[in-house]
Amino acid sequence: MFVARSGVGPLAFDDPMEVVVWRPPGGGEPGVCRLAKHGSFVTGWAEIEVIEVRPYADGASRVRWREDLRLRWLPGVFDRPLGWLARRMFGRAVDGLLRGPETPARG
Fold first, then answer.
1. Bridge partners, 14 (sequence order)
2. How do residues 5-46 score in pLDDT, each as one tens digit?
3. What angle do CA 92, 41, 44 make, to 5 degrees?
4. Angstrom distance (rounded) from CA 22 to CA 100
């Protein structure tokens, strides 16, 4: 279990998650990490799959991020906007991780 801080500025909240699957890539098989979200506001799951498509010179791999999120106490009509927002937010986070510490972020 761990707690991430999700959101932007004053709209941020604690997002407790549990790693329920951890399988590193190897032997030609992709790596998978599946997270169960146990928050008081956002529930659901996220799955990160590391796919080694072919051996790149720089050691790069392809990553697939899937998730199914629900907002507790709100009707399902809010799930789709949450999904859009989450894809944008997590996409930016992954881009930042892939840039690494030596590459400055672009506005």
1. 5
2. 876 778 788 889 999 999 988 887 889 999 999 988 788 898
3. 70
4. 23
Instruction: Please measure the distance between the N-terminal and C-terminal CA atoms of the chain and give it in whole angstroms.
Output: 33
* pTM of the shown model: 0.68
Structure tokens at 104: 């400055």
**Continuous segment of H or E residues that includes residue 98:** helix 79-99
Residue 102 region by backbone torsions, left for phi larger than 0, else alpha for psi between -120 and 50, else beta: alpha
pLDDT digits (tens, 9 = 90+) for 73-86: 777 787 777 777 77
Break the chain into its structural domains and give their ranges: 2-99
Buried b (16+ CB within 10 A) or exposed e, 27-53: eeebbbebbebebeebebbbebbeebe
Q: What are the phi and psi torsion angles at 8 (to 5°)?
A: -135, 125
| 79 CB neighbour count, 10 Å cutoff | 15
Instruction: Please name the residues in contact with 86: beta carbons below 8 A apart, sequence gap of 6 or more.
Output: 67, 69
